[in-house]
Design a protein that fits this description.
By secondary structure, the chain is α+β, with helices and mostly antiparallel strands. Helices cover about 40% and strands about 20% of the residues. A hairpin with a 4-residue loop joins strand 1 and strand 2.
């Protein structure tokens, strides 16, 4: 394997651990985890104490057109509705290794406008 690929993989892994080392989700305040791929965006509400996913949704579902800012806005509103259905109002935001800009920021702002507090 090429050294640049190994170095990039290690850097990505260390970014994830650096961001997540202080983030823990509970039943009252679950972790809102964001996973971004080349084609889609996935989000989950996770209770780390019980290792349970409370709600999850992605842009592979009907009504979303892949990874775009419009889909991220719809996804933020949908996860906020799912959180309210699970009686959750406050969450801990986990952006993973991704910067807080672009699609991730659009998703977060939409979730905040829909009623989630983080």
């Amino acid at each position: 394997m090429d050294q640049s690929l190994i170095r990039r993989t290690k850097a990505r892994r260390s970014r994830v651990f650096r961001v997540r080392k202080n983030i823990r989700g509970t039943a009252e305040k679950p972790r809102l985890s964001v996973c971004k791929t080349n084609a889609h965006l996935y989000v989950q509400l996770i209770d780390d104490e019980k290792s349970v996913t409370l709600a999850g949704i992605g842009t592979m579902s009907k009504g979303y057109d892949g990874r775009s800012k419009e889909s991220a806005k719809k996804l933020g509103q949908a996860i906020a509705a799912a959180a309210k259905k699970a009686h959750v109002e406050r969450v801990v935001f986990d952006r993973g290794r991704h910067k807080f800009h672009g699609i991730v920021a659009e998703f977060a702002n939409s979730a905040r406008e829909a009623g989630l507090q983080f």
